[in-house]
Specification:
Elements lengths: L1 H14 L10 E2 L4 H38 L6 H46 L8 E7 L4 E8 L2 E7 L14 E4 L4 E2 L4 E2 L1 H21 L5 E6 L4 E4 L6 E3 L16 H15 E3 L13
Helix pairs in contact: 2-3
InterPro entries: NERD (IPR011528)
Pfam family, one: NERD
Keywords: Membrane, Transmembrane, Transmembrane helix
Length: 284
């Protein structure tokens, strides 16, 4: 512990006399929340991995202490207790690691899909659109918000992996206006979530801007061939060629775009510098 404490103190001494050159917070990137969750899961995996050798060593130390300090010999019952404890602990931590690895992979899939969609949305900038990612509400986040002449769009991205088997059909997806129909399952929650979040954003913008601004819900499912079987107020696409959002009637003026973007950016620009502390702003 002492060497670690010394290293941390030396590191702290090195960085405390320096400041970050950045004097503003950064905008949130696509998948920012998921990356934070991945970091937490990585820490949990590391903790569980460290416990795997610790438990046997700890148990062996107790058994060895009892052997040398106790006046009686170690019984078969005690040996059985030690063995059962080691086995159950090992099984528990291995099972936890397995679950955490699966969870991390799902989070990685979601993050990669959000990054892919977020990068494609940058193509809308040439059409006078503003693009924001990972907008934080109280109990949820909106993956992407784009604001332009044709309106405000709240985009929810869902990453869905494909099975190796049934290759001919596992890349197809049907949308009947209410649910997503995959090859061997269907989902309604992504549709409901996208509609719910767009409605929430509409109410939030009304309070923030004092204007009644419509928000169009959009669902992006990267990598799937999507067939639309019914009309819906929800737009759905496969995460590519997002410039279709620029097609349509102009409903927002430049001033409205600026006002809405200002409010959204205030919420999305909240990533502080992590290398060094920010330089204090000089007093006026």
């Amino acid at each position: 512990m002492l060497p670690a404490w010394i290293v941390l103190k030396l590191y702290d001494k090195k960085i405390k006399n320096r400041r970050s050159p950045l004097n503003i917070d950064l905008l949130r990137s696509p998948g920012e929340s998921l990356q934070e969750q991945i970091d937490d899961v990585n820490n949990d995996i590391l903790s569980n991995l460290l416990m795997l050798p610790v438990i046997p060593v700890f148990t062996y130390s107790i058994a060895l202490s009892n052997y040398f300090l106790s006046t009686s010999k170690t019984s078969l019952f005690q040996i059985a207790i030690y063995s059962i404890f080691i086995m159950t602990s090992t099984i528990y931590f291995c099972h936890s690691i397995y679950k955490l690895l699966n969870k991390r992979n799902l989070l990685k899939l979601g993050m990669e899909c959000e990054v892919a969609v977020g990068q494609d949305l940058q193509n809308l900038i040439q059409y006078k659109f503003k693009v924001y990612n990972d907008f934080q509400a109280k109990k949820f986040n909106i993956d992407h918000i784009v604001i332009g002449p044709t309106g405000v769009f709240a985009i929810e991205t869902k990453g869905r992996s494909k099975f190796v088997k049934h290759e001919k059909n596992n890349w197809k997806l049907e949308f009947d206006g209410q649910k997503l129909i995959f090859h061997s399952w269907f989902e309604t929650e992504p549709v409901e979530q996208a509609l719910r979040q767009a409605n929430w954003l509409k109410n939030w913008l009304r309070e923030a801007t004092a204007e009644n601004i419509n928000v169009t819900p959009v669902l992006a499912i990267p990598g799937w061939y999507i067939t639309r079987k019914a009309k819906s107020k929800l737009l759905i696409y496969n995460g590519k060629n997002s410039t279709f959002l620029a097609n349509g009637n102009v409903v927002l003026s430049d001033k409205q775009i600026q006002t809405i973007s200002f409010q959204i950016e205030k919420e999305c620009r909240n990533i502080s510098a992590k290398s060094y502390k920010k330089m204090a702003q000089p007093a006026n």
